[in-house]
Amino acid sequence: MKTGTGDLLVECKETPTAGNGLFARTLCTPSSLLFAVPPQALMNIRTLKSFHPTSGPTPLTATQMISLHLYINRPHGSEDSLDPHYGPYISTLPREFDSHPLTWIVRSKRGMESGGVPLLKHLPPSVHACLVKLHDRFCQDWDAIRAYLQTANSYISSKYDAYLDNNDVSTSNYAWAWLNGTFNTRCIYYRLKASKEHSDNLTLCPILDFANHTPNGLHSMTPASSEADIWDSAPVKQIGFRLLSPADASVQEGEEIFLAYGAHPNRTLFVEYGFVNESLGNVEIADGEVDVQDVVESLILDHKSGVFVKSVLEDEGYWGDWTLYCSAESAQPSWRLITALRLHCLFVSNNTIHHNTIQSWHDVIAGKREMISDGNELAWKESLITICDTIITKAQAGLDSLENDGAEEYGHGGGDRWLPWMCENIRTLWREELLIATAVKERTLRGDDF
Predict the structure, then answer these.
(1) Is the pLDDT of residue 410 over 90?
(2) Quick one: pLDDT at residue 407?
(3) Confidence bin at 216 (pLDDT 50/70/90)
(4) Other CB atoms within 10 Å distance of the CB of residue 284
(5) Cα–Cα distance measured from residue 404 to residue 427, given in angstroms and rounded to the nearest whole number
(6) How far lies 299's CA from each of 45, 310, 380, 381, 409, in Å?
(7) What is the pTM of this model?
(8) What is the C-alpha to C-alpha distance for residues 185 and 204, in angstroms, rounded to an integer?
(9) What percent of the chain has pLDDT over 70?
(10) Mean pLDDT score across all residues of the chain
């Protein structure tokens, strides 16, 4: 890999608040080639398959193969990785993920109460539910790796020593490897398969993973299109990774260059990446989203028609994924939520539960009519206000609990200096729910159309 001044236009520096970051070494005009990583320096399912050959009906996925390689080559303590192939790169990866929520839930399953484990009880229910799903994915991959290791080749067997045999230690090591080896923290999309949506289209890329996230696209670098991207096909030969400076502006020497992780809500950023976007102010409301699955599910299933309504919504693809949205311009429920509430309120106002009752609802989702009735519109909006009130109450209670419990004190006397920062992230999650629910309620009470 070329690292001369003219070939590598970025350098890694420590930032005041976000760890390491990438900074311009010189003036970068729009769409300049910042750096190019050769294919053999990338860590993905294609470059690793010779080290970890698999066969049979269930070969390792890209995430499993990358995390396996990291797992068996994790540096011990402050030492460098002994991997003869990717050791120098692996040695630059974060040595621990103590502040990541997945680490907390992994430790809690082992009966530990240290680090961020006590913070789990302070998470909003929707965030905790997402974290549980992430942990389920982790456990599935860990099960696959342990099964693979039972038939490991000699290369892996030589690495699989007594240090890794301890179950608690090995689970902790794999959590570190998994967080490094998924989209959650350091991997990036990289076309390797015929289908561009294939889950194995990812890679670890040196240098790139020093870049911090930007929510607004400011000074955000972009991958150069490969032939695989241009022709929408799997690459015929191994290709490298080329990163370009922002296309719409120059970057001055010494300015930080970012990587946009995507338009994710704070709930997703917290669970998968371990941080949130900047705190919401008391007046201005940034773009945000609140998952109201738990509240709406209880509302529907607590009614006598709940089981039938759920079956209809499932059949039509409208069960779950209910949210409230908010931006500087608007605040509203999602179409999926409106659709579910219309059906729920249709049965609340009827004494009979029958398929014939829902023809008017079917007509609405088919675009044949705008609404079921004036009464139904009033009813689902009243239900929406009830939902908002529930979210507001929970959010205020969550903020009070975090304050009264003195959560920042959990790590005092130890090395968990990140605890106050993470507590503020959790406050941001609760504030977001409070402000968005309040904004949606206010619009509903004003009689605004959605």
Answers:
(1) no
(2) 63
(3) low
(4) 8
(5) 13
(6) 45, 11, 12, 14, 37
(7) 0.88
(8) 10
(9) 89
(10) 87
Laid out side by side, the sheet with 256-257 consists of 10-14, 20-24, 256-257
* CA nearest neighbour of 126 among 395, 403, 443: 395
Distance CA 62, CA 445 (A): 49
The per-residue pLDDT for range 76-95, each reduced to its tens digit, is 888 999 999 999 999 999 89
Structure tokens at 278: 């900047």
Tokens for 387? Answer: 């939902």
Going by C-alpha positions, the residue among 300, 306, 318, 266 that lies closest to residue 386 is 300
What is residue 357's three-state secondary structure? helix
Q: Diameter of the chain by CA atoms?
A: 77
Q: Identify which of 32, 10, 37, 59 has the alpha carbon closest to the alpha carbon of residue 203.
A: 37
And the tokens for 403?
A: 């304050």
Read out DSSP for 383-446? HHHHHHHHHHHHHHHHHHHHHHTTGGGGGTTTT-TTHHHHHHHHHHHHHHHHHHHHHHHHHHHH
CA–CA distance, 209 with 90 (Å, rounded to integer): 12
Query: Concatenated DSSP letters for 191-226?
Result: --SSSTT-TT-EEB-TTGGGPPB-SS-TTB-EEPPP
Cβ neighbour number for residue 355 with a 10 Å cutoff: 9
Measured between its terminal Cα atoms, the distance across the chain in Å is 54
Tell which residue, 151, 196, 127, 133, has the closest CA to residue 60.
151
